[in-house]
Design goal:
The structure is a homotetramer. By secondary structure, chain A is of the alpha+beta class. Chain A is 26% helix and 22% strand. The longest helix of chain A is centred in the C-terminal third of the chain and has 24 residues, at 331-354. Chain A has one domain (5-354): 4-Layer Sandwich (Chorismate synthase, AroC fold), CATH 3.60.150.10. Chains in contact: A-B, A-C, A-D, B-C, B-D, C-D. The B-C interface holds B 1-5, 9, 11, 13-17, 20-24, 26, 28-30, 32-33, 68-70, 72-73, 75, 77-82, 114-119, 121, 124-125 and C 1-5, 9, 11, 13-17, 20-24, 26, 28-30, 32-33, 68-70, 72-73, 75, 77-82, 114-119, 121, 124-125. Chains A, B, C, D: It is an enzyme of class 4 (lyase). Chains A, B, C, D: Keywords: Amino-acid biosynthesis, Aromatic amino acid biosynthesis, FAD, Flavoprotein, FMN, Lyase, NADP. Chains A, B, C, D: It holds the Pfam family Chorismate_synt.
C-alpha cells in the first residue's frame, strides 16, 4: 500500500527518491487567481536546504523549484500545480553494504518486509529529501491563507530545552538551529557538534504556532483539526510524537487549571489561557494554534550496531555517508509547511460546507 | 465541514448525538464470511459503558448494540454493517444555562463559531457518547485481525504514573481504572474520588499495545502507520497528545540509544529493543505496536469559570449534570477500538497492494 | 470490495438489505442551519414507493423515513444526518430455489464469485429497495440547492418513445408511468400490462433536467460534472447507459450542428441550443443540465431460463415473487435524487475552492 | 473545485497544459516488483500521438515519456511513479481572439465562469493533450493486469457504422481510424477528409472490450464496475455518452431477450449471451467487459459561429489552428488506457477486501 497524497480539498501528492533524477509535488485544488512565482516558494526551500552549516548534512543541493503547470500570467489557474526539484548531488558511492544489511532505526527492514525489495540508495523514498517537495507545496498553501502567520522553532535538542524567558523569535535566523533562545543556541552548538564528531546523533523538539486562524476551522470528530495536524506532523520522517496545546502536560492538570476561561473581546472572546492549543472539540477557537513535535535522533550513526542481513544472518552495520547529526533542525521548515498545508485545506473545507 | 468517516478500505461512519434517539456506525468494506453476532460486539460496549462505578458518569445506558444489515446466516456478507445503539437515559434537565453561555474547555464556542448554532443537550455531537459507536465498530474490526492481540490500560492519572515493575495486565479487571498496577490503583481511587467530590476533574494517559502485527503494514509517508494511529487517537474526545513508541522521550536519546538492534530470529529479526514502537519508516516491523495517548481532564467542572454568553457578555458557568471525573478511564476501550480499526484497514490495504 | 458512499463534500452512505429489519442512509457534510423535517423527505419516498399501481411491484411498504441525528430544533446542525426506513413487508417465502440456482441477469452469480456467498432473500443488498435510502438522502440534498429545480420523466418504455410535441410535464402525475405525453401513457399501459401478464418485463429510458444550475459547477477532468453524473446514474440498479445532452446522437452531428452558439443575455450568455446538456469542459454553463438514463428490463421474469446451480450443474429458473414489470418507472424519483445529490456536492465544492 | 486524481487503490494524478513546458502523471499505489521501463509505455503514447496522418491534428509531438521515480533496477518499488512528457511543438501563435471571445462547444466560457480567467493557449488544461498523461499511466496499469487483454476500436464515424460481419481486429493497424472493418475505413476516409477540408468536424463512437477479467471485480453500488467505467470514460475530453453492454438498446429488449443464460462451463458458467457487457449487479461475471463511448464532433471548426466576448458583447469566432477533424479517432488509445486504469484498481480492491 502506498499513499502519497495529503489533504481533502487542497491536496498535494509527492513523488521522488533520494537518488533519482528529481522529486516533486502536484498541488491540486488550489483556488484560482492567486499571484505566484517560483520566487514565492524558493525561500522556504532555501531554509530547508542542506549543507548550510556543519550541523546539517553536507550534501549540496541547490533545491531550485520549477513550476511546470497550473500557473498562467503569474496567477494560479485552479488546475494542478506541478512542482519539480532536480537532484544534483547524488554522490555515486558504494551502497553494497546497505543493500545487504538492514540499518537499525531505518526503514530498510520494513520496506523489504512490505515490498519485497527497496531502492537502497540514500534511503530511496524514505529519505528526508522527500520533505523538499512538501516544503514547496507548503509555499503554495501559504498563499491560500494570507490571514495566517506560521512560525516554528526548535525548543529542545538532546534533552536541553530553551528557557521561555529568553524567547526571542528574531534569534532563529541568527543561529543554525532555528533556536529562539540565544543562550540555548550556544549550548546546542556544543551538543550537536559533539554528536557530529562522535558519529552519533541527537533528537529534538520542534514547536509551531499559527496565529490569525479564525474560529471555526476543523471538524468535530474524524477530521478534527487536532487529528489532521497529528496526521500531518507524524508523516514527517523521524517524528514520533505530537502534542496539541499542552498535550501530555494537560493530562497532569485539573479541570480548573486546564480551562481556558473567556472574557468579552473585541472580535469574539478574549481567552485568559491557551491550554487547548487553539482547538476545542476539534475546531479552531481563534486563539493561536500550537503544536509540539518530537523528532527522534537521526538513525544514521557511525557506531556499529548489531543487525541482520537480507538473508537473515547476523551482521553489524555503521552508516557511512553524509547525514544530519540532528534531523529535527531541518524539520522546522517542514513542520511549518505541514501546518500551512493543513490550514489551507481547512479554510477551503470550511468555506465549502459552512460558507 | 464535517467528516464522520474513518478508514480507507475498512471504513466506518458514525452518527448520533448525546440526547438524540440513538447513535450508530456504518462499517463498510468489511471482508465477507466472518462469523459475527451482536454478542461479539457487546463485551466491548460493556467495558466502555458508563455508570459502572462512582468514578465514571452516573448516566445509565444499557448500550445494547443491534446489527441492522450486512450479516446473513451469522456471517458478514461484504455489504455495509449498520450498528445502532439506542439512547435510553437522556435525562430531561434544564439546558437553558449551557444554551446561553459557553463552557470553557468544551466545544460550545467553537461549534457556534463554525455552524452558527449547536445542539447543546449533553454536548450534542461532541459528547463522549459518540465513542460507543466506535467501540461497536472496533468490535467488527477485531474480527478482521484475529492474528492481533490488542490491550490498553491507564498508565497515569492526575500525574501519578504506574510503576512498570508492578505491571500485571490481569489487574486491569480488578479495579475501576483499567490499571495494571494494583498499588497505583489504590492511590488513584483517592485522587479520582477527591476530584469527584470537589467537582473537579483529572487527566490521564492511556497506553495501548498490539502484538501479532506482521511486518509490512503501513505506508512510507502520508499514510504512515504512525500517522494513521495519530489521526485515529486524536479523533477521540479529550485527547491532546499521541506518542508512538518512545515518542517525546526519543527526542532525548542519542542515535545509539534509540537504535533497535536486530539479531537473527525464528521468523524475521529478533529485536533487542522497541524504541520505535513497532514502526519504522511508517511500516510495521513485526514488533509490538505501541502508542501512548494523553487525555486532558474532563472540561465539565463544578467550579465556576469566567466565560461569555452567545451575545458576547461576561458571564460565569459551572457545569452541572453527570460527568466523568476522569474521562481518560473510559478511554481505554475506545483507544483499543481505534487501534483495531486502524489495523484492520492496514491489513486490507497491504493485501490489496502488495498481496 | 464494497463502497457504499457517494460524494466528496456532501456525502451519503447507504446500508440495508431487502429482507433485513431496515435500511438507511447517513448524510454527512450537509451545511448547518437548513430547515428540515421528515415531512420534507417523505414526498420523495412516496413517489418511489412500491405497490401504488398494478404496474409496479405489489410489495407493500409504507417507507416512512425517520431522522435519527443531525437535526436540532428543526434545523440541520452540520453533523451527520442518519435516516432510517423500516422494512415491513418482507414476505417469508421459500427462497430455496434462488439460494441454489443463479438467476440470469441478476447479481446472484457475481455476488457469489466475489463474496463466496450472498443474502439471497429478495436480492439482498442488490435489491432495488436500496434506492429508498438514496431517495431519502436526495431529499436532504434538495434543501442544499433551493436555486435548482429538478424534474425527471420516463421518455421511452419497451422501445416506444414519447412525442416531444406532446410534452406536458404536468401529465406525469396523471399516469402511473411518470409519462409527460398523455398518448404515450395510454400505449404504455398496454405494453407494461402485457409484459406483466406474460411474466415478462420491459426496459425504459428516463430523462432528467435540472434548471437553475449556475455556470461554474463541476471540474475539468476526473470530477467532470458529466463524470459525476454518469457515475451517479450508473450506480442505480438496472442502469446500463448514460448520456449527457445529446449523448450518442452528438456523435452523428457535425461540429457546426453541435455548437451551442451564444448571444449576449441578461445574466451571462443566451445560448441558441443545448446539445452539450448544460456542461462544457466538465463544468456547468448555466443552461439546463440534461441527462438520459437507460434501464434494462427487470431481470426477474416468469419464463424459465437456462442457468447453473451453485455447484455448477445445469438447471433452469423462473423468478417467482413480486416484481416491477418495468423497473425504470420507479427509477424516476431515484434519478432525480441522484441528480440532487451530485449537484449539492458540486455546489459545496465550488464554494470551497473558488468561493 | 479541481480533482485531477482517479482511482481508489491504484491512483493516478495528471497535470499539465497544452502550452506549458510539460505534462505528466503521478501513479500511486502500483504494486511493487513489476518489471517496467519507458519502452513498455511508449507504444501506447505512439498510438495516441498526433500528426501521424492527415486525419488528425498536425501538431508534431514526439511524446517521449520519462519515468522520474518509483522504479529501481527495472522494477516498480511500490512508491509513486512520476511520468513526464515534454511539450515540444507549442506553436507561438496569436491567441488574442480566443483570449477575448468564447468558442462555442469549448470549455472557454465555463472556465471563466468557474475560475474567473483561463489559460487560453491551445485550450490550456482542457486540451486533449492531457490524455497523453493518462495513456502513459494506462501503460503502467496494464502491467498490473497481465491476465486481461484490452482492445478498442472506432465503430462509427459521422453516423456511419461498421458492419459487424466485416469485423477483423487486425485491420485497426491498417488504416488511420482504428477501424476493424476495411470497407468502413474506406468510407470514413472520405467522410473525415471532407470534414477536414470544409473546416468542419465529425463525431465518433469508440468501443472497448476487456477479456480475461475474472468474475468478482467491482462492487454492488456506488463503486459498481459500471459506475467506475462510466466515470472514467466520461472524464475523457469530448465524451458525452457511455453504454455498458447493450446500453440503451437494452432498454428496448424484454427480460427474456436480455437474460444472459448460463450453462455449465469449464471454469465457472458458460454464458449464452452478453447483453450485460460482462457486469451484473456492478460486479464482473467473467465474460468480456464491453463499453461503448460517444465522442462529440471536435468543437474547433473553421465556420464562424455566433458567440459573445468576455465583456458580454456579441461576436463571432472561427477556430483557427491545428485540430483533429474527428477527435474520437485518437480517443481509442485513451479509452483503452481508462479501461486498464479502472481494472487495475478493481483488481487491487478485490484482493484487499475479499482476498
Amino acid at each position: 500500500m502506498s499513499f502519497n497524497t495529503f489533504g481533502r480539498l487542497f491536496r498535494f501528492t509527492t513523488w521522488g527518491e533520494s537518488h533519482g533524477p528529481a522529486l516533486g509535488a502536484v498541488v491540486d485544488g488550489c483556488p484560482p487567481g492567486l499571484a505566484i512565482s517560483e520566487a514565492d516558494l524558493q525561500p522556504f526551500l532555501d531554509a530547508r536546504r542542506p549543507g548550510q552549516s556543519k550541523f546539517t548534512t553536507q550534501r549540496q543541493e541547490p533545491d531550485q523549484v520549477r513550476i511546470l503547470s497550473g500557473v498562467f500570467e503569474g496567477k494560479t489557474t485552479g488546475t494542478p500545480i506541478s512542482l519539480m526539484i532536480e537532484n544534483v548531488d547524488q554522490r555515486s558511492k558504494d551502497y553494497s553494504e546497505v543493500a545487504v544489511s538492514y540499518r537499525p532505526g531505518h526503514a530498510d527492514y520494513a520496506y523489504d518486509a512490505k515490498y519485497g525489495f527497496r531502492d537502497y540508495r540514500g534511503g530511496g523514498r524514505s529519505s528526508a529529501r522527500e520533505t523538499a517537495a512538501r516544503v514547496a507545496a507548503g509555499g503554495v498553501a501559504r498563499l491560500v491563507i494570507p490571514e495566517v502567520t506560521i512560525r516554528a522553532w526548535v525548543s529542545e535538542i538532546g534533552g536541553d530545552a530553551i528557557d521561555e524567558d529568553n524567547f526571542d523569535f528574531a534569534q532563529i535566523r541568527e543561529n543554525p538551529f532555528f533556536c529562539p533562545d540565544a543562550e540555548a543556541a550556544k549550548r546546542w552548538e556544543k551538543i550537536v557538534d559533539e554528536a557530529r564528531l562522535a558519529g552519533s546523533s541527537v533528537g529534538a523538539v520542534v514547536e509551531c504556532e499559527a496565529t490569525g486562524v479564525p474560529a471555526g476551522w476543523g471538524a468535530p470528530l474524524y477530521a478534527k483539526l487536532d487529528s489532521e495536524l497529528a496526521s500531518a506532523m507524524m508523516s514527517i520522517n523521524a517524528v514520533k510524537g505530537v502534542e496539541i496545546g499542552d498535550g501530555f502536560s494537560a493530562a497532569r492538570l485539573t479541570g480548573e487549571q486546564n480551562a481556558d476561561a473567556m472574557r468579552p473581546g473585541n472580535d469574539g472572546p478574549s481567552f485568559l489561557a491557551n491550554h487547548a492549543g487553539g482547538i476545542a472539540g476539534g475546531i479552531s477557537t481563534g486563539q493561536p494554534v500550537r503544536v509540539r513535535v518530537a523528532f527522534k535522533p537521526t538513525s544514521s550513526i557511525l557506531t556499529p550496531v548489531e543487525t541482520i542481513t537480507r538473508s537473515g544472518e547476523a551482521s553489524e552495520i555503521r552508516t557511512k555517508g553524509r547525514h544530519d547529526p540532528c534531523v529535527g533542525i531541518r524539520g522546522v521548515p517542514v513542520v511549518e509547511a505541514m501546518m500551512a498545508l493543513v490550514l489551507a485545506d481547512q479554510k477551503l473545507l470550511q468555506r465549502g460546507q459552512c460558507g
